[in-house]
Amino acid sequence: MKYPLDIHTHQSSALPLESIVNIRFPESFCFEPGCYYSVGIHPWDVCLFKDASPDWALFEELAAHPQVLAIGECGIDKLVHRDYLTLQETLFSTQVRMAHRLQKPLLIHNVRGTDIVQRMLRSGAFTQPWVLHGFRGNASLAAQWVGLGAYLSFGAHYNEEALCQTPMNRLLVETDDSTLGIEEIYRRVALSRQMSLDALMARVQQNIQDVFFNRQEL
After folding, report:
1. Mean pLDDT confidence for 19-47
2. What is the end-to-end Cα distance of the chain in Å, rounded?
3. DSSP 8-state class, residue 74
4. What's the rounded Cα separation, in Å, for the pair 182 and 195?
5. Which of 122 and 78 is assigned the larger pLDDT?
6. In sequence order, what are the residues at sequence separation of 6 or more whose Cβ sits closer than 8 angstroms to the Cβ of residue 17?
């Protein structure tokens, strides 16, 4: 079976089976045959729900669809909507619990919210994989996350030392909102890791299988 190479993109034109396309709930969309998706409430969208709760029944209906491989991106961003940080945490916590219930991995957006996100992860109540998407932190922070069992996904911009010290069985690759193609990002990561492109892609494909495909039948 061929697994997607790009675990997180906002490019809806991404080729089927090659990418996991992110949908920011509550945007309505149709599932295209042969495509993979993630769905989540982004912390940037918190103000949409300051007066009324999300339609969690609809959210779960979408999240449970077999073409949806992950919940997210969701998480904490302390640089936006600081007056609604408690609401950010509430929305994130609900998505964490839903991901646990559905046994689907989480794609996490984390900007200066490490204390909150790690507190949830340290609680030990959740068994699904956690993926820190678009990871740009330093090597020390990368080691913290890996020590907690998280996966780190690297895109067009990253801390090279953190990338090189991330264990190969915890490494993923994405385009996010970059205009660079996924193949170019793999080439850059392979060059930074001083390994062949084929070896990198084979290892990441195994990680993608472990994270996104071993817990559900598609």
Report:
1. 90
2. 11
3. E
4. 17
5. 78
6. 2, 4, 34, 35, 36
Going by C-beta distance under 8 Å and a sequence separation of 6 or more, which residues neighbour residue 130? 105, 106, 108, 121, 148, 149, 150, 151
The Cα–Cα gap between 36 and 1 comes to 14
The per-residue pLDDT for 215 is: 62
What whole-number distance in Å separates Cα of residue 120 and Cα of residue 93?
8
> Which residues, 6 or more positions from 3, have their beta carbon under 8 angstroms from its beta carbon?
205, 208, 209, 212, 213
Containing 154, the helix (H) or strand (E) segment is: strand 151-154
Give how far Cα 125 sits from Cα of 22, 74, 86, Å.
26, 18, 20
Closest CA to 131 of 22, 30, 58, 11: 22
Residue 24 contacts residue 54 (beta carbons within 8 Å) = no
SS3 state at 158: coil
Structure tokens at 36: 């993979």
Residues 33 and 36: their CA atoms lie apart, in Å, by 9
Decide: 74 and 117 in contact? Cβ < 8 Å. Answer: no
Please report where in the chains the tokens 């997180």 appear, as a residue: 8
